[in-house]
Amino acid sequence: MKIEEIKNRICLVAFDLDDTALDGQGKLTEKTAYAIKKASQCGIEPVIASGRSFNSLPEDIINVPGIRYAICSNGANIFDVLEKKCISSYTLNSNSVRQIVELADDYSDTVFLDAFTKGVPHTDHRVLDSLLQNDKISEHRKIYLKKTRIAENDIRSFIRQNETGLDCINYNVFDSRLFDQLMYRLSKEVEGVYVTSSIPELIEISDEKSGKAGGLKRIAELLKIDISETAAFGNADNDAEMIRCSGLGYAVSNSSKEALDAADIIIGPNTEESVADAILELCSLKSL
């Protein structure tokens, strides 16, 4: 089927936030909010698809009229936005949690842990201290981290106490030379996990049934929408599978190579409200 024919059939749009639907300052613009609201009015279900935990989603995005569902923590959770209630959840199994922490212990001076539980992110206090002092981290991400993270003086104790209820564990990798080595070791040494990344210094680990693609499929099934009638927007490696499995996959031009390779359509950068333009085009076709 040709792309133009698929566009006419879209009934659901799933969109990543950071560096995709949000602008260069991590903000939701008026135009993008309008496009999301317009999609809902046209009969196109707008769905957030983020690596963020639910409690880390910006208030202005979850308050946009028409948004009912959010894929969070890279598909580990699906939330009903209006009721602020988790309706689907995959948690890491205890054995995987122990293996993840044991592997991180081999890099105790360069790898620091986050752990999300029930949509709330908890972070090794040293991570926050390091990130907030890092000149390479954008100011809007520093603000986001301050507002959303609960600092833990002993993150490993927190993980042990909650090892049966963790949405995901993140490795904050401050030595970029270790990134590929860690990804390889996780794939070989840790069982039952889904491993991905949204930014170069972060490795995100959740249950093997997670992933934004899986989250998209679960919401489509819930709403009785065929996956071929969905569109997905993203920019990073953790978006690639969702972009590829959707009926119509979009990557913003500032995307990673993996996301670009997965896309059917490459649009402009997130700094030019390109997602809003693409959604409005789908709305115009829906109303014909």
Radius of gyration: 18 Å
Q: Give the strand order, joined by hyphens, for the main sheet.
A: 5-4-3-2-1-12-13-14
> Could you give the distance between the termini?
20 Å
| Order of SSEs | HEHHEHEEEHEEHHEHEHEEHEHEHEH
Low-confidence stretches: none
β-strand number: 14
Number of helices: 13
Quaternary organization = single chain
Using the alpha-carbon principal axes, give the shape.
Answer: globular
Percent helix:
25-40%
Global mean pLDDT: 93
Q: Major β-sheet, in short?
A: 8 strands, mixed
Q: Strand fraction band?
A: 15-25%
Give a quick rundown of the structure.
The chain has 288 residues and is an alpha/beta fold.
Structural commentary:
The protein is an alpha/beta fold and 288 residues long. Helix content is 39%, strand content 23%. It is built from 13 helices and 14 strands. It has helices spanning 3-7, 17-21, 30-41, 59-62, 94-105, 125-132, 139-148, 155-161, 179-189, 212-222, 237-245, 257-262, 274-286; strands at residues 12-15, 45-49, 69-72, 77-80, 85-89, 111-117, 120-124, 150-152, 168-173, 193-196, 202-207, 230-234, 248-252, 265-267. The strands form two sheets. An eight-stranded mixed β-sheet has the order 5-4-3-2-1-12-13-14, with helices on both faces. It has a six-stranded mixed β-sheet with strand order 8-7-6-9-11-10.
Task: Write the topology of this structure.
Layout: H1 3-7, E1 12-15, H2 17-21, H3 30-41, E2 45-49, H4 59-62, E3 69-72, E4 77-80, E5 85-89, H5 94-105, E6 111-117, E7 120-124, H6 125-132, H7 139-148, E8 150-152, H8 155-161, E9 168-173, H9 179-189, E10 193-196, E11 202-207, H10 212-222, E12 230-234, H11 237-245, E13 248-252, H12 257-262, E14 265-267, H13 274-286
Parallel strand pairs: 1-2, 1-12, 2-3, 7-8, 12-13, 13-14
Antiparallel strand pairs: 3-4, 4-5, 6-7, 6-9, 9-11, 10-11
